[in-house]
Amino acid sequence: MLNKIILVQLLFISSLDLASDNDLAIKTIINDIKTGWETGSGEPFRKNFLDFDGARYFESGGQNEGLDDLINHHVEPEKDALTFLSLEFSGIEINYEKDFAWAVANTRVKGEVRKSEKKFDKAGYQTFLFRKIDDQWKVVHTHSSSRDYNPEKHSH
């Protein structure tokens, strides 16, 4: 009986280690994406996104169709269009179902439009969908939604 209890505990601990390894891998990808947005670099997206026909990425009512569209028409042009961009992901929750995972996060995005010098400060939510392919997690879809930051709504 004691051996069975120890075996169950070891299996539980090893499943926690696997979950924490997966959590670390996914949080690292999310941080890489944050850096890509802030620096206007497509490299983290090419490294961490699964490029496939039919890929779509949504952001506050807009969409990019395919990885090249996301990088060439959204990520990279923002580097020149914005004086600065600051992106935060917090409260990240990750869920797993075999080789599929989804993460939700609170977002805060701040920046300044170079041409108009208009500053923005928005808060909202982000969803990332992942597939594990050849032992690597890859982003297959993202959806972001935000509105003007209101400290009263976010102080709870």
UniProtKB/TrEMBL annotation:
Keywords: Signal. InterPro entries: NTF2-like_dom_sf, SnoaL-like. Residues 1-19 form the signal peptide. It holds the Pfam family SnoaL_3. The keyword Signal applies. The keyword Signal applies. It comes from the Bacteria. Residues 83-146 form the SnoaL-like domain. This is YybH family protein. It comes from Marinicella sediminis.
